[in-house]
Amino acid sequence: MRIAILKERAAGETRVAATPETVRKFIALGATLSVEAGAGVSASISDSAFAEAGAAMAAQGQAAQGADIVLGVQGPDPAMLAGAKPGALLAAILDPFAQRERVDAYASAGIEALAMEFMPRITRAQSMDVLSSQSNLSGYKAVIAAADTYGRAFPMMMTAAGTITAARLFVMGVGVAGLQAIATARRLGAQVSATDVRSATKEQIESLGAKPVFVEKVAGIEGEGAGGYATEMSEEYQKAQAELVSSHIAKQDIVITTALIPGRPAPRLVSDAQIASMKPGSVIFDLAVAQGGNVEGSVADQLIERHGVKIMGYSNTPAHLPADASALYARNLYNFLSAFWDKEQGGPVLDEEIGNAVRLTQGGRIVNERLLG
Ligand code: NAD
Predict the structure, then answer these.
(1) Which residues are designated catalytic?
(2) What's the pLDDT band for 87 if we cut at 50, 70, 90?
């Protein structure tokens, strides 16, 4: 089984789909690895580190030659897959709804494309879940970046020159990224509060030592919805949420927003009027900026100043931590493929539950329910 690791070509993408650790592990399963020259450089992994782990280095554009499996972070240009074996597997974050044409091209090329972000949220797939591994790092990075932009300190400090008060930080959306944002801000000494529409998150917020801020008069989502995700809320809920946020946000120094609804634009959580109510020098980090944004006026990869408040957010937050993001992503891919490794076949044979969830194309056709829908 020949596994190819491509160098990422999307603008701003710094991650790589394998590390020397996962190269060694795949070789131990009996695979041969071919890594495109320079694939790991932006994640601080040299070609020689891959070669020492046992990979063959391929010239630029040549890695997919004769591959049975191609691994990427983002979906590659279909032209990069030329020379892969017929029916070769491609595993990457394929962004199928936005990149439908590219998915169609994978189908026409006879590639079996697997969208890693379609991994079902079931217990046995947790170690394969790329959304979790990358969101966790994003939540951390958002707080670090906001702290760096904030013109004051996070912790309370009692000094001979007087006392500095602790920063107040509010996290909106407490999924994987939000939980890590809370934990990171607490470690830095901020006073943290958080909100979500899923009432199950209340206890999680408290267990991290933060204060839950919840709409009480209109019901949110009890427990976990399908796959643990949120759905769009009623108008009544949205109104109650806006009122609650308005009174709370005016007292905050830092706001981190992470709210997402799968398959929909990100919900708008912070309006321009609410930004105007915040103190000058406050910072808002919009982690949903690439999905339409939770914050009015946020622009990906730009520092915007409105009413004296700095608004920021990255189009690709995990790419700002390329070494760790690659290490976790590469392990997700290894955990996924190795869990299905069939000794007789010498390669992965996916089961129905996970295979049907992630498989987009097979036998020249689109086969995924969510795309056929
Ligand atoms: P996400 O990235 O889809 O959304 C981030 C958060 O925003 C969610 O908590 C969501 O409820 C919240 N949100 C949506 N609309 C909102 C609004 N209007 N106001 C406030 N908050 C809003 O979420 P995620 O990080 O993918 O996690 C969702 C859940 O899935 C979590 O409970 C997580 O623990 C669970 N999960 C389970 C597994 C597994 O079992 N394999 C893996 C990963 C995550």
Answers:
(1) 121, 126, 129, 132, 229
(2) very high
Report how far residue 361's alpha carbon sits from residue 109's, in angstroms, rounded to the nearest whole number. 10
Using 50, 70 and 90 to split pLDDT, how confident is the model at 373?
Answer: confident
Q: DSSP 3-state helix, strand, coil percentages of the chain (rounded to 5)?
A: 35, 20, 45
Share of the chain above pLDDT 70, in %: 98
Q: Ligand 1 atom 41: the closest Cα is on which residue? A: 121
Q: Is 259 in the pocket of ligand 1 (CB under 6 A)?
A: yes
In whole angstroms, what is the distance from residue 234 CA to residue 215 CA? 13
Q: Report the separation in Å between the CA atom of 102 and the middle of ligand 1, taken as the mean of its atom positions.
A: 28
Cα of 370 vs centre of ligand 1, distance in Å, is 19
Burial of 66 (0-12, 13-18, 19+ CB in 10 A): middle
pLDDT digits (tens, 9 = 90+) for 300-333: 999 999 999 999 999 999 999 999 999 999 999 9
Average pLDDT value for the chain = 95
- For residues 131 and 336, is the Cβ–Cβ distance under 8 A? no
Which residue, by CA, sits nearest to atom 30 of ligand 1?
Answer: 228
| Cβ of 75 less than 6 Å from ligand 1 | no
CA distance linking residue 66 with residue 64, whole number of Å = 6
Token pair in block for residue 287: 């982690």
- Higher per-residue confidence, 222 vs 210: 210
| Whether residue 151 has its Cβ less than 6 Å from ligand 1 | no
- For residue 175, the CA-to-ligand 1 centroid distance in Å is 4
